[in-house]
Design brief:
Pfam families: AAA_lid_14, GAF, HTH_8, Sigma54_activat. It comes from Gulbenkiania indica. One of its GO terms (biological process) is regulation of DNA-templated transcription. It contains 26 helices and 19 strands. It is an alpha/beta fold and 630 residues long. The chain folds into four domains: 8-206, GAF domain (Beta-Lactamase, 2-Layer Sandwich); 212-296, 2-Layer Sandwich (Beta-Lactamase), CATH 3.30.450; 320-498, Rossmann fold (3-Layer(aba) Sandwich), CATH 3.40.50.300; 506-629, Orthogonal Bundle (Helicase, Ruva Protein, domain 3), CATH 1.10.8. Helix 4 packs antiparallel against helix 8 (187-208), helix 13 (338-349) crosses helix 14 and helix 25 (607-614) crosses helix 26 (618-629). It is globular, with a radius of gyration of 26 Å. The two termini are 51 Å apart. The structure holds adenosine-5'-triphosphate. Residues 331-334, 358, 360-366, 472, 515, 545-546, 549 line the site of adenosine-5'-triphosphate (ATP).
């Protein structure tokens, strides 16, 4: 067993010189120390963010994770049985490292309480330095952190083994950790924790996989029906749409393959060919690393597999899908309250048009895609039409289709039109504020009568569509000035979702870090330094997420693995603009629960300080949070 690391000398060297000779620390721990240093976290920090989340807020965070927490419970209970007699605790935290639950030996629970390792406390790396919970989340990999490997001096008496729970798209939803005295927590414990997490991930996968063709894989055919098998899921176009770590590991791939790889890219033949060749749903597959056994799992019944809020009409067969769910449908909503998406799904399922508003680049299109992917129509078409990009005379033909010879330049055989192409699925009308008035009238008729009349006088055709619209324009003002029909406005504007601009979403630094992680910046160990993040925070981001996302992609393309990025690494003009920007005004009221939470976290959870920074009273802040949550 690896001895408990003391590392006094290594800590002193790192503290004084910021560098260490090779071999003193496991690479993942050294990289984490470097990250913590770049966050500006002092190793000697005695306390940071010591305030516990209030009970109501903790209850809300548990509620937000309720789906996976209930799936994880049996494995967490079993893990507890395995470790309790050794005086250890099992800790469950959410995807931000906030501890939600703890089960353990009373002797260590007391000590855990003194170390703030208890529910309601935040253990993300940015707050508490290198520690198994925060570092496992940062790496999206299991990690063991013992004694002096902890970045903060005060945690040197602790040892923790943690594994992140990844959803089938590779996003960490939470983490399971076993902690205790350093001599009792070792590599074997990490294996125990990781085995429990793999089972939880498998259950998450099974919940998500309705409508996909899912394969269980293992090098040994006798293991296919066991929890040791990996999982891959493919959509109707045989594109990889979900995976677990084990299966990706055997293929030598990572989660970035999702949405980009087809079955044939992985196995050298199509899935339909493999199924017809093997004559049954079980057989061997050839990969670049050797042979794997595989079994096609039976389709899941939707009602059994989705959380109750999303259970609605049963899905249609995947094979009927001409467009299919997009590979990026699982895209993070970058600082938006997840409730928004759930609420929008409810409206869509109830056949109420969803209107998405917001400045350019705030992610309206992404929101519409995520909405489609989260709805019961995920396996049916998603048809996007940009009303501003079509010449005025063509919008009608594009939307409603036309009969043969309806107008000069029409295709000979006519056209079904985009609304009919979306039959059974979702139509996304982007920039609806740019739709000509005459077309608005026809659209209203389609929404009321549920039939499309092609140009040129063809017979009315029934359509079954759900509608999502977006615009950056002020539709109400357009109604007042007569350029948007009032009747259509009231048809569309039941419950508009106004996506806030990036500058009003709370901590731009935290959003940048989340996107950075999603783009694999962490895995390449390229660090956004504290100075750079500070500059991001003072800039107004007129291009919103588009501008931030493009900048991060550019930096990733330009710099080598292991670089610590500073303001000097930005393009000159942008750096000058950012440096000239007025520091962000704290008085902008954050516009969603998560933005309010981020604001609160910056004040170490202290409601009084957070309210003061916004120039409002504590009670106003409480009311605001309650209103946003409702
Ligand atoms: N949630 C997100 N995560 C990561 N990047 C995002 C996200 N939302 C938006 N982006 C980035 O911003 C770009 C623009 O997003 P999107 O097209 O959805 O915005 P929009 O509000 O529809 O913009 P416009 O009004 O100009 O059409 C995306 O291509 C992507 O680079």
């Amino acid at each position: 067993m690896r001895p408990v690391p003391d590392l006094t000398e290594a800590r002193r060297l790192f503290y004084e010189t910021a560098s260490l000779p090779d071999g003193l620390l496991p690479p993942s721990i050294l990289q984490s120390w470097r990250r913590c240093r770049s966050f500006g976290l002092p190793m000697q920090a005695r306390t940071r963010n010591e305030e516990r989340l209030e009970a109501t807020e903790l209850a809300r965070r548990r509620e937000a994770s309720a789906d996976w927490l209930s799936l994880a419970r049996p494995q967490v209970d079993t893990l507890f049985e395995q470790v309790v007699d050794d005086g250890l605790v099992v800790v469950v935290a959410d995807g931000q490292g906030l501890i939600l639950d703890e089960l353990g030996h009373p002797a260590f629970l007391d000590r855990a309480e003194r170390l703030a390792l208890t529910p309601g406390m935040a253990w993300g790396e940015t707050i508490r330095g290198t520690n198994a919970i925060g570092t496992a989340l940062a790496l999206a990999d299991p990690v063991l952190v013992r004694g002096g490997e902890h970045y903060l001096e005060r945690n040197r008496t602790l040892a923790c083994a943690a594994s992140p729970i990844l959803d089938p798209f590779g996003q960490p939803v939470g983490v399971v950790d076993v902690s205790g005295p350093p001599r009792r927590v070792h590599a074997g414990r990490l294996q125990q924790v990781d085995a429990a997490v793999r089972l939880i991930e498998q259950r998450l996968f099974d919940v998500a996989r309705a409508g996909w063709m899912t394969l269980a894989l293992h090098p040994d055919a006798s293991q296919l029906a066991t929890p040791r098998a990996g999982r891959l899921a493919f959509d109707a176009q045989e594109r990889l749409c979900a995976a677990d770590r084990r299966a990706l590991g055997w293929l030598g791939r990572d989660f970035s393959a999702i949405g980009h790889c087809r079955f044939a890219d992985l196995f050298g033949e199509t899935l339909s060919h493999w199924l017809s060749r093997s004559g049954q749903a079980t057989g061997r597959l050839t990969t670049s690393g050797g042979l794997l056994s595989a079994r096609l799992l039976p389709q899941m019944a939707l009602a059994a597999s989705l959380p109750s809020s999303s259970r609605a009409t049963p899905p249609r067969p995947v094979s009927a899908n001409p467009a299919g769910p997009r590979g990026d449908a699982a895209a993070t909503l970058a600082g938006l309250e997840p409730q928004w998406l759930a609420r929008a799904v409810r409206l869509l399922e109830a056949d109420i048009p969803v209107l998405v508003l917001g400045e350019t680049g705030v992610g309206k299109d992404r929101f519409a895609q995520a909405l489609h992917a989260a709805s019961s129509r995920a396996a049916r078409p998603f048809v996007a039409v940009n009303c501003a990009a079509l010449p005025e005379g063509l919008v009608e033909a594009e939307l409603f289709g036309y009969e043969e010879g309806a107008f000069t330049g029409a295709r000979r055989q006519g056209s079904r039109g985009r609304l009919r192409e979306a039959h059974g699925g979702v139509v996304f009308l982007d920039e609806i504020g740019d739709m000509p008035l005459a077309v608005q009238a026809r659209l209203l008729r389609v929404l009321q009568e549920r039939v499309v009349c092609p140009l040129g006088g063809g017979a009315p055709q029934p359509v079954d569509i759900r509608l999502v619209c977006a615009t950056h324009r002020d539709l109400k003002a357009m109604v007042a000035e007569g350029s948007f029909r009032a009747d259509l406005y009231y048809r569309l504007c039941h419950h508009p979702f106004r996506l806030p601009p990036l500058r009003a979403r709370g901590d731009v630094g935290a959003i940048a870090l989340a996107l950075w992680q999603a783009h694999g910046g962490h895995r390449r160990n390229i660090v956004l330094s504290a100075d750079l993040l500070a500059l991001f925070r003072r800039y107004a981001w007129p291009g919103n997420l588009r501008e931030l996302d493009n900048l991060l992609r550019t930096l990733l393309a330009l710099y080598d693995d292991g670089t610590v990025l500073a303001p000097r690494d930005l393009p000159d003009t942008l750096r000058e603009e950012m440096e000239d920007a007025e520091p962000a005004q704290p008085l902008v009221m954050p516009a969603s629960v998560s933005a309010l939470e981020a604001h609160l976290a910056r004040h170490q959870g202290n409601m009084t300080a957070a309210a003061r920074a916004l120039g409002i009273s504590r009670s106003t802040l409480y009311r605001r949070m309650a209103r946003e949550r409702a």
